[in-house]
Known about the structure:
The complex is a heterodimer.
Chain A lengths: L1 H5 L3 H16 L3 H26 L7 H19 L3 H23 L4 H21 L1 H4 L5 E2 L4 E2 L2 E2 L3 H23 L2 H11 L1 H6 L4 H27 L1 E2 L6 H14 L4 H17 L7 H15 L4 H13 L1
Antiparallel strand pairs in A: 1-4, 2-3
Chain B lengths: L1 E12 L2 E12 L3 E5 L6 H8 L7 E6 L2 E2 L5 H6 L2 E3 L12 H8 L8 H6 L2 H20 L15 H14 L4 E5 L7 H16 L3 E5 L3 H7 L2 E6 L2 E6 L1 H5 L2 H10 L3 H7 L1
Parallel strand pairs in B: 3-8, 3-9, 6-7, 7-8
Antiparallel strand pairs in B: 1-2, 1-4, 4-5, 9-10
Helix pairs in contact in B: 3-5, 3-6, 5-6
Bound molecules: adenosine-5'-triphosphate and magnesium ion.
The site of magnesium ion has 3 residues of chain B, from α1.
Amino acid sequence: MRKLMSNRLVVPAFLALLVVALAFVMPSNFYFRVAALVWISALAVIGLNLLMGFAGQVSLGHAGFFGLGAYSVAILPAQFGLHPVIALIAGAAGCALLAFVVGRPILRLKGHYLAVATLGFGILVSMVISNEAWLTGGPDGMPVSRLTLFGWRARGADTWYWITGGLMVVGALLAVNLVASPTGRALRALHDSEVAARVVGVDVARYKLIVFVISAIYASVAGSALALVNGFITPDAAGFLHSIQLVTMVVLGGMGSILGSVVGAAVLVVLPQVLTVFHEYEHLMLGFMMMAFMILLRSGIVPSLSTLIAGRRA
Amino acid sequence: MSVIKVEEIGISFGGVKAVDHVSFCVNEGDVFSIIGPNGAGKTTLFNLVSGVYQPKFGKVFLEGADVTGLEPQVLARRGLSRTFQNLQVFFRMTARENVMVGRHLKEERGLLAHLLALPATARQNRESAASADVYLERVGLGAYADTPASAMPYGALKRLEIARALAAEPKVLLLDEPAAGCNAVETEEIEKLVRKIADEGTTVVLVEHDMKMVMRISDRVHVLEFGKTLAEGTAEEVRTHPKVIEAYLGTHGSKEAAVALG
Ligand SMILES: Nc1ncnc2c1ncn2[C@@H]1O[C@H](COP(=O)(O)OP(=O)(O)OP(=O)(O)O)[C@@H](O)[C@H]1O
Ligand SMILES: [Mg+2]
């Protein structure tokens, strides 16, 4: 049992089961749609958690990559007739390159300075998207053409539920693999002590860059998925508030927890839907609940609950 | 042949000459100790030699090659590793994982293989874990392998740092006060361990305040005071050196220092 629990594949397997099981209890299309939005956010949050939770580097600009991924599947098919899947891959590759170029100077910074620099990057991207209206439709956004695969049109909330759920599970699988590898150990090590990692040969600058690029790819793919699901995209996807939301999901679910990434995404996507029953007090309630979560479960929902459960058992 | 040679090295912090024109050579397989009162510049000297600080002047040679100003990870590749006076442990990892990070340079680093968890990566993980266990045994921490570092006692963490550094298979190992804060039994264990490491061919540069230990295990001793070299020689030569006695009695005046120095 212990051995089973410590296996890194438990979490992706559980998530895959969750995606399948939930599909059977979804009462309506609306629920499928909300769940698809959870899977998309979770994908971006898993990537950001690799950067923040494992390597300990903050980014307040990750919605920038999310937005670029989203606009890639909007613009590239419309302007150049690229297939959306090719556009998604091109967007991810572009974001990887951009993260590589921006990351080199930015990742030398630490703590608050890194936070402000990544914040600036995110704002820059969302400004460009808002201002280049000829290409992006400006603040009003732009439509995204439908995804067609081998003559089959992807439409309907349940179809997108499966596609995004699949992407999220694959993202979780790659993430747990990485964490348990030599690269993952180097990332976790530099989080705790950069100097100790360096004296045993870890090229700290290189590993920070690697994880920054990987997390940018996660965000970009998630952004592309959102654009395809919604069939429409606005600059909000790349905006500052969205960056903050992604970071909040990481912290709320649990830094350094892949399962926590999904839980954090689920809470912040689902909770506002549930809280609409409070009408004008909706945002007030959301704020209170987030504060309560952090006060009661201070290392994030999943890590705090698992220590609590482990403590009970012992 | 001298494995490590330091020539006229120095650095200052806001006018304080923390290390000032210090030179020494260390022979292969020796235990070379650097002693001196608090604030003498011992840790700063380690930081200069291991690439953590850039020297303002002077040079460092490793196996005859000029390595001045190279970064720590580059020096690690060339066979230099170290431990820290103020603990630098990976607290979010288990003892075994800490030492596995020490195997970093021996590991396959293909990113795609890591993401896909290819069989080669699984094999690599097993190999690193197995050799980490060997190093943990060597420093007497075998029982702690699965313990999170954050739950280990201080003395064990000091030895964990040594295991991690050893796992990198260095030619030169810098140990900054490995016995600080350890009880008599632990100190004796560390002394034996340092002796064993040197006997197996790894050159050890040691900073340590426990004079009894220093005098027993050092092949040579280098004395610093206010960033400058005060004396160098065998343990016996240094112990009876008038300037050294004066420095220890003068600045500390402690009986212990007098007794230890003889
Ligand atoms: N990064 C730094 N910035 C400013 N001053 C420093 C720095 N590092 C060391 N110093 C100063 O350099 C001098 C030497 O310090 P160092 O830590 O090397 O002494 P030490 O011999 O290791 O002492 P101890 O036995 O207490 O460990 C001290 O005056 C210290 O305040
Ligand atoms: Mg010191």
